[in-house]
Design brief:
The complex is a heterodimer of chains A (382) and B (277). Chain A has 382 residues and is α/β, with parallel strands linked by helices. Chain A has helices spanning 19-28, 34-38, 57-75, 80-84, 97-108, 122-132, 147-160, 177-185, 248-261, 279-296, 306-309, 316-329, and strands at residues 5-13, 47-48, 86-91, 139-142, 166-173, 207-208, 210-217, 227-235, 270-272, 301-303, 332-333, 355-356, 361-368, 372-379. Chain A has a single domain, classed as Thiolase/Chalcone synthase (Peroxisomal Thiolase, Chain A, domain 1, 3-Layer(aba) Sandwich), CATH 3.40.47.10. Chain B contains 10 helices and 9 strands. Classes of the chains: A alpha/beta (382), B alpha/beta (277).
């Protein structure tokens, strides 16, 4: 079975228009300046926006997507021929619905004769194929907020089985009214603009725009390349929008992934929790982690990244993985922003001080609407 | 690996209410505020596994080219009105994120579920994914579906959908139950393979035996470039929907012997399915 490494990545988000800008911005954010940092990037206090201006939604969508792809390919230092071997996977909950929202508005306001700009989302794959001249048909996966994490897991399996040489996994989630108003009606959005998952005082989710990509390859680029040690997906048909309060599916997914990687909790540098900020999801996941620690009588640090990025939904599998990798390159894992009061009956609290690191093994947990759980373990200790 | 059950149905353009009525005939589970697309998917999946034995941890792979187009369009009208509220279930109905959950609820399964799209080869990609997951022993059973709605009410459709050859676009829901077990199997899945171009395919076809052959619309257009026995091509349904090639594959399984299906995409990349029945 082949090994699989992350050999390139890119990130465009509210923090910056590339990885370097994003990490430099992230390093400056603290509890005191948090609100000021994001005040110009809020959409109604509940959505962190990418800081770029475009004529229309179509231009925005495809320009950001193209930039993300080109940055990732450059980062992986792939030749034109190597790019052709990239199998493409795209994960998103909303895809390009923002383009159709604008087109529909123009149509009903008689500014355009076209009712919709696109039918289906396959053309996003074709656009991506054409940029890198990929030999393969792109695959678009939707599994809610685990869309890109599942894409990473699937691409890893294919490379390990020697079915493909390398893969480009793109996670994209750009502002759209449907998602924003949908989350609003589900009463999941924060009203005070301070994102504080795993905190008793959390008042909800802040969504975030992001387009990010990772390149997976069976050949290591350098010693800093993180290896995908194990992946796992598990499912819980408890509720279409809520998490099972027992946290069972999340617990099972983490435990199974550790087992596949032949690791114990004490071997982990940290767990990157999904930590959405909604009470139901937070409690379910916190309970799962707590139960895991109690069962094995071991603990590790728990890291939360959504206060930096907002919840980038289907894109969080790539955006949060990349952001944490960038922190690691800077030599530390970030403390939890805005955290004040933990839950009762939960014996751990998330990381409260920056932790200096060099070699790491990290468990990344992702959870989606509709009961999907995806766990990845990455390490640069090999 | 085997195909243990299949189901296919097409309708000109049923309403959600009509599908709910059909669904009532086969399940007592109530599906309220669920989109037409999701109801079509649940209906096809339940029909496929009706009176069949299946593992409760089977994975579900739902493919679609156009997605939840009817209900998405309703929400597009709402979101552009300033003070209009998008109801939670309307929001959940606009994309494919939740279809697998609803099917698993109807079937009472606990396996993973995925929604897959890849233009003309969305179904082929989903089938390939399921086949791969079974072949690496990740799962023992899978339910693979292709679901697409009629686009009758969408204006300017000929500019948006380029592969229909001006056929009327129907509602379609087609499902396959895949298993490692041969009990009561309809056919053995012999080969699932992809090729980057027609030349690669033709070399492979040199040694492949088949009694009956089905071709998707792009393969039919490339007929003269394919090294195939044209006399073995079966006559296919005139109905068309986004993921129609699933229906073609379903129809092929009505024949006996060695069965071959070829799907090409716009760039002549090939998906090959070979079955023994």
């Amino acid at each position: 079975m082949k090994n699989v490494y992350i050999t390139g990545s890119s990130l465009i988000c509210a923090l910056g228009n590339n990885k370097s800008q994003s990490i430099q911005t992230a390093k400056k954010i603290n509890n005191e300046n948090y609100r000021d940092f994001f005040k110009d990037k809020h959409e109604g206090f509940s959505f962190f926006k990418i800081d770029q201006t475009f004529e229309n939604q179509k231009e925005k969508f495809y320009t950001i997507l193209q930039d993300t792809i080109l940055q990732a390919v450059k980062d992986a230092n792939l030749s034109k021929d190597e790019q052709k071997e990239l199998q493409i996977f795209i994960g998103s909950t909303s895809m390009s619905i923002s383009i159709n929202e604008e087109q529909s508005d123009n149509f009903y306001n008689k500014k355009s004769t076209k009712m919709l700009e696109e039918v289906g989302y396959g053309n996003i794959g074709t656009f991506t194929e054409n940029i890198i001249d990929s030999k393969y048909k792109a695959t678009i996966l939707q599994t809610a907020c685990t869309s890109t994490a599942n894409s990473i897991a699937y691409a890893t399996d294919l490379i390990q089985a020697n079915k493909i040489k390398r893969a480009l996994i793109i996670g994209l989630e750009l502002f759209n009214k449907s998602t924003y108003k949908g989350f609003q009606s589900l009463m999941l959005l924060s009203k005070n603009g301070i994102y504080k998952p795993f905190d008793q005082q959390s008042d909800g989710v802040i969504l975030g725009e992001s387009c990010s990509a990772v390149i997976l390859d069976s050949v290591k680029k350098d010693d800093s390349s993180l290896e995908v040690l194990a992946t796992n997906t598990s499912f819980d048909n408890y509720s279409i929008t809520g998490s099972n309060p027992s946290g069972e599916a999340t617990y099972n997914s983490m435990e199974k992934t550790l087992e596949k990687a032949k690791l114990e909790i004490k071997d982990l540098t940290c767990i990157k929790a999904h930590a959405t900020g909604s009470e139901n999801s937070n409690l379910s996941e916190a309970k799962a982690i707590d139960n895991l620690f109690k069962k094995y009588n071991q603990t590790t640090d728990v890291v939360i990244l959504k206060p930096f990025l907002g919840h980038t939904l289907g894109a969080c599998g790539t955006s949060e993985t990349i952001l944490l990798c960038e922190f690691i390159k800077e030599g530390f894992i970030p403390k939890t922003l805005n955290y004040q009061v933990g839950y009762e009956n939960i014996s751990f609290h998330p990381l409260l001080e920056n932790k200096t690191v060099r070699e790491v093994t990290i468990l990344f947990q992702y959870i989606g609407f509709g009961g999907s759980n995806t766990t990845l373990i990455l390490s640069n200790k090999g | 690996m085997y195909i243990c059950a299949t189901y296919n149905t097409t309708y000109k353009n049923n309403t959600t209410k009509e599908y709910k009525q059909l669904l009532k005939e086969i399940t007592k589970t109530q599906f309220r505020r669920v989109s037409k697309f999701n109801i079509m998917a649940i209906y096809g999946a339940l029909q496929c596994l009706k009176n069949k034995q299946y593992d409760n941890n089977l994975n579900i792979y739902t493919a679609s080219e156009y997605g939840c187009i009817t209900d998405m369009n309703k929400v597009l009208l709402q979101v552009n009105k300033k003070d209009e509220i998008v109801m939670p279930y309307d929001f959940l109905n606009i994309n494919g994120n939740n279809v697998g959950f609803l099917i698993s609820e109807a079937l009472n399964t606990i396996g993973n579920n995925f929604y897959v799209t890849a233009e003309d080869v969305s179904f082929e990609k989903a089938f390939e994914l399921a086949y791969f997951d079974i072949s690496i022993n990740k799962i023992d059973q899978a339910l693979v579906g292709a679901v697409d709605e009629s686009l009758d009410y969408i204006q300017d459709i000929s500019n948006l959908v380029k592969n229909s050859d001006n056929k009327g676009i129907y509602d379609g829901t087609t499902w396959f139950h895949l298993s490692t077990k041969s009990d009561n199997a309809l056919a053995k899945i012999d080969i699932v393979e992809t090729f980057n171009n027609i030349e690669e395919l033709n070399s492979f076809l040199d040694t492949l035996q088949y009694d009956h052959l089905s071709l998707n619309l792009f393969a039919q257009k490339a007929l003269n470039s394919l090294k195939i026995d044209k006399h073995k091509i079966i006559t296919q349904s005139e109905d068309f929907f986004g993921t129609y090639s699933a229906m073609y594959l379903h129809n092929l399984l009505n024949f006996e012997g060695k069965l071959l299906h070829l799907s090409l995409d716009e760039k002549n990349r090939v998906f090959l399915f070979h079955f023994i029945k």
